[in-house]
Amino acid sequence: MTSIFDDIKSAFSRGNNVLHQLILINVVVFAVLLVLRMIMYFTAGPAAFAYLMSFFRIPSDMGMFAYRPWTIITYFFTHLDFLHIIFNMLNLYWFGMLVREYLGDKRLVNLYVLGGLAGGLLFLLAQNTIPYLYSQGNAVMIGASGSVIAVMVAAATLLPNYTFNLILIGPVRIKYIAAVMVLLSISGATGGNAGGNIAHIGGALLGFLYIKQLQSGTDLGRPVQAVLGFFSGLFQKRRPLKVAYNNPSRPYSSGTSASTRAQSPSHSGSMSPSQIEIDQILDKISVSGYESLTKEEKQKLFKASQK
């Protein structure tokens, strides 16, 4: 058991590991709820577990949602069905790897969070405005499907002709895989899981819009990074103050030497692409589209966007 906690701690202490962290959060929440469900069913009864779940799943009832607004976030980290979480996490891993490789960890997080928020908001809007859904009574929703389909559609929008080798089918371009998932969600919007499929559509629209806006120079995920940066700053340890002792006969400083400090800016600056290179890449996008860029050019564009 100790090694499990050590593995979890290691996964969150390493940098550039966002994809595995997202999957790990979902798996840990799933495992904890599975154990709690078994314990509570045999002790307090199913009603007690249903009450516990009301703090995780998003309700369509706006009055109840007003008392639990955080559920618009917790719902897309929560699963109770084994096949549900397996299907979502496999798709998140396959398509998330592409997004992470070409756009970086931060934008993968942006897509996951914004996709879940878009799915939750569209779920609330549809359940409270569409007569057919409203007549069905109160509904609740859990699962990362809205977030995952946002990542899928984003990857397909960014790299439409990238191929996956599917079992029994062979190589298939990811734009067709994403299209099938969207069509299945549209067709299921009138079925028993209407609210969930509507959330999928919200996530898909967000994934498409995010990439299109990113290609035009606007990152819709900046508010997400600002919020995450604020909370991460609360838990980070403050660096100890550097003490400098000035003595004319024996100068001493505990900080980095002046020569080292003078060299570091020029070194880091040389790693960034020049403005001429960026202009050439942007010209290439305007003529041939984003897909025509090489992997190196995409990485340069990504680095420039971080400035």
In words, what does this structure look like?
This protein has 307 residues and is mainly alpha-helical. It folds into 2 domains: 11-228, Rhomboid-like fold (Up-down Bundle), CATH 1.20.1540; 237-257 and 270-305, no CATH class. It is built from 15 helices and 6 strands. A two-stranded antiparallel ribbon has the order 1-2. A two-stranded antiparallel sheet has the order 3-4. A hairpin with a 3-residue loop joins strand 3 (163-166) and strand 4 (170-173). Helix 6 crosses helix 7 (105-129), helix 6 runs parallel beside helix 9 and helix 9 (145-158) packs antiparallel against helix 10 (174-187). The longest helix has 25 residues, at 18-42.
> What would CATH call the homologous superfamily of the largest domain?
Rhomboid-like
Number of strands: 6
Averaging pLDDT over every residue, what do you get?
82
Any idea what the CATH architecture of the largest domain is?
Answer: Up-down Bundle
Oligomer: single chain
Biggest sheet record: 2 strands, antiparallel
Task: Supply the number of structural domains.
Answer: 2
Principal-axis shape: globular
Give, in spatial order, the strands making up the sheet with the most strands: 1-2
Structural class: mainly alpha
- Outline the low-pLDDT stretches: 250-270
